[in-house]
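Below is how a single chain appears once it has passed through the pipeline. First comes the sequence as given, then the structure the pipeline wrote out for it. We keep one example in the README because the format questions we get most often are answered faster by looking than by reading.
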Amino acid sequence: MDYSQYNHEKTGYLKEDFRLFHINDRTKKEFSYHYHDFHKIIVFISGKVTYHIEGKAYHLKPRDILLVSQGAIHKPEIDPTVPYERYIFWIRDDLSCQELNTCFHCANDRSFNLVRADSTLQEHLKDLLPEIEQTLRNEQFGEEALRNALFTQFMVYINRIFLRTSSTPDKKSYSSDSQVEQLLKYINRNLSDDLSIDQLADHFFFSKYHMMRKFKAETGYTIHSYVTNKRLLLARSLLSQGTPVMKAAEKSGFQDYTTFVRAYKKQFGKVPSCE
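Resulting structure:
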């Protein structure tokens, strides 16, 4: 499939610590590559779905759990002839208990997003997910406290199983282009360095034009737009931690301050400032 037609948009907005959606539908909609300003967890119940995240295509099985980190480009590819049931959590990056977001940082470090739940976790989730869903519908005494406690329990389970999982991904659970996979890892680990097309082609001994075509086919992004997007997200994260604006621009790989300010304003709708 030619992904060059797609736009790469930031979608969704989150004010609460988390939101939960339980969806069972059929859809013929083709989703474009996009990213969120929050983390996302998908608990796959049934259907026929391939989930594309940062150059990897995960072929989902019932009770699989996917971690989609803040800023990760992704899109589902859904077979519309089969009902697609899933639970979806939207989760803020700045939770009061930051430890609960460990699984997302770990997924980024491993470049692997799938949790294949064992029977124990499946048993826990079978009751826990409907309980959380129920608290979102009720307005009884203590409902918010109960909802937050159940959500914390859910996140503890997810973190424990992900941290127990081998750091070597099961290659049968996904497909990817090995060259693009190398490029994505290198880019995300070296955002402050020279990531020009010439430098990347020389580093990996790739043909420039072959590399550019393959990258866009697998990710939906040009290399330049992908690098710029990731650098802007890094800069915003640094600014939120109190890093001075010029230092944040430098650390995120922008050599020209004016270019950084213009790109930041275009992406986020405001000029960069230390928060």
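The CA atoms of residues 135 and 146 lie 7 Å apart.

See the next section for the split statistics.
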